[in-house]
Specification:
The chain is of the alpha/beta class. The protein has one domain: Phenylalanine Hydroxylase (Orthogonal Bundle), CATH 1.10.800.10. The chain contains twelve helices and six strands. Bound molecules: fe (ii) ion (FE2).
Length: 258
């Protein structure tokens, strides 16, 4: 497993991401916003106890994610950082790719702090704190997944070729965002796009999406479509596969064969 790349990477983040890093003004959330969070979590959890990967559910309790109010990032990080070196860092919105990769390399997950309104519980065009924290952050408590994601950031930060980055973006999409795993006798979700969207989960759990065994070759050749429900996703049987796939992708990129 990788060591936590704190000192050098933190400097990198301070340079590249400083304009985007902000702080979570936890006291500014309204009672209604806490209530929207509670409703979102309650709705999702009824299904996720059955539909989510065990590692996600374990991560959820390890980081102490609250169900009844919005998460205070400081409190989450106090439980997450000692475990894997990751933290959820508040940012102002979408980051340019280099800044995003550098944050991942430093084990800082860029996290929006705004929350969708009650009129848009199912869908937001841009990620909010429900997608970023409820969807993503529990998996960062899993040591192998945590190492994979940091390594992904380090490799991508060192690559300038847009075609190679597009291919690596597919690996991110079909794991971090829309990953599924075979366990407990069925397909379980761990990608944030599935965890945080009832519609996307229904599409997969309802059998409307083909599930192939995870193959790096097929993932790299499957374009991402952001404007329709998935017709094909890829199931790992253990998270080592994702970790190993990233290292194989790195080797291929170094040889110019990605
Ligand atoms: Fe995401």
């Amino acid at each position: 497993m990788d060591a936590f790349p704190r000192s050098s990477s933190s400097q990198l983040v301070a340079v590249a991401c400083a304009p985007y890093v902000t702080r979570q003004d936890f006291a500014a959330y309204s009672v209604d916003q806490h209530s929207v969070w509670a409703d979102l979590v309650e709705r999702a959890f009824e299904e996720l106890e059955e539909q989510a990967a065990q590692e996600y559910l374990e991560g959820f309790s390890i980081i102490g994610l609250p169900r009844d109010r919005l998460p205070n990032l400081e409190a989450i990080n106090a439980r997450l950082e000692p475990r894997t070196g990751w933290n959820a860092t508040a940012v102002t919105g979408f980051l340019p790719a280099p800044a995003f990769f550098e944050m991942l390399a430093a084990r800082r997950f860029p996290t929006t702090t705004w929350l969708r309104g009650r009129g848009a519980l199912e869908y937001t065009p841009e990620p909010d704190i429900f997608h970023d924290v409820f969807g993503h952050v529990p998996m960062h408590a899993h040591p192998i997944f945590a190492d994979f994601l940091a390594h992904y950031g380090r490799v991508c930060a060192s690559i300038g070729d847009a075609g190679v980055l597009e291919k690596l973006g597919r690996l991110f999409w079909y794991t971090v965002e829309f990953g599924v795993i075979r366990q407990r006798g069925g397909i379980k979700v761990y990608g944030s796009g599935l965890i945080s969207s009832h519609g996307e989960r229904l599409n997969v759990m309802g059998g409307h999406c083909a599930i192939h065994d995870f193959s790096l070759d097929e993932v790299l050749e499957t374009p991402v479509k952001v404007d329709e429900l998935h017709k094909l996703l890829f199931a790992v049987s253990r998270f080592d596969q994702v970790y190993e796939a990233m290292h194989e992708a790195e080797r291929r990129a170094a040889r110019g064969r990605l």
